Amino acid sequence: MKAIVYEHFQAELSKAKTLIAEQDFESAWIALQRAHILGQNDAIAHPIAHWNMLKLAWKQKDFQEISMQLMSTVLAIPLTLLSGKKRYLRGGKANVDDSEKMSIPEDIQQILNQ
Hints:
By secondary structure, the protein is mostly helical. The chain has one domain (3-85, 101-113). It is built from 5 helices and no strands. The protein has helices at 3-21, 25-39, 45-60, 63-83, 106-113. The N and C termini lie close together (11 Å).
């Protein structure tokens, strides 16, 4: 992972942790989804993003999200290593269908393009 991408990935995780502490779960999910997009092509960052999503789902007692994030956390490393950059980027939440392509926020796309 490029240093600039890693820096923004860490910033989104940090933002999510702050938002969770403030009980702003909706905004925390957005920060975690942004972190997921930034880290999705990295075999270490990808499962870290899902692990943090799993912890938030657990905190909210969202059992559908918990089951999805548990599976995603376990599969993130092998899927990233097998498919890597061939996969299209997505936000990582359970309510987004795998076949759905999502638009990447412009600021994140600019970071990824660097």
